[in-house]
Specification:
4 helices
């Protein structure tokens, strides 16, 4: 006689399990925005680790989370590069536009990141797949 978990055939159990790990990844992403980023990397690892075994809804959220991480890193590097380029040149006032633009890019990416994570959590709470996981916007 095989040991069968009583809730193994319950579709609600499978649905909640499919939502758990994406919720953890979103939580780690949002926590990383406050703590400095270490938990974002852990959330990225969670997303990559669960991507292969995910159902279609969870797969869209993992794809969305992975893309959010890499786009945010790319734009923070661009903004940080402009800050580093503009900082020494701002002493002679030539670099001020670069410095301001770099700070603007970093701030806008931070807001974009938080909005994307919150909207992803809303779709996940509704039990829906993220409709456009490969988009650059929201």
């Amino acid at each position: 006689m095989a040991d069968v978990h009583p809730a193994a055939d319950d579709p609600r159990q499978a649905l909640s399990e499919e939502r758990l790990m994406p919720t953890v990844a979103y939580g780690l992403y949002l926590l990383g925005a406050v703590t400095g980023g270490v938990t974002m990397v852990i959330g990225l690892i969670v997303a990559y680790a669960n991507l292969a075994d995910a159902g279609p809804k969870a797969f869209s959220h993992y794809r969305f989370l992975i893309r959010t991480f890499w786009l945010a890193i790319a734009w923070f590097i661009i903004g940080g590069g402009m800050i580093l380029f503009g900082a020494p040149l701002s002493l002679v006032l030539i670099g001020l536009p670069f410095l301001w633009l770099g700070w603007f890019i970093c701030g806008a990416v931070g807001i974009w990141y938080l909005v994307r994570c919150c909207i992803g959590l809303i779709y996940l709470a509704r039990g829906e797949a993220y409709p456009r996981p490969r988009t650059w916007l929201i």
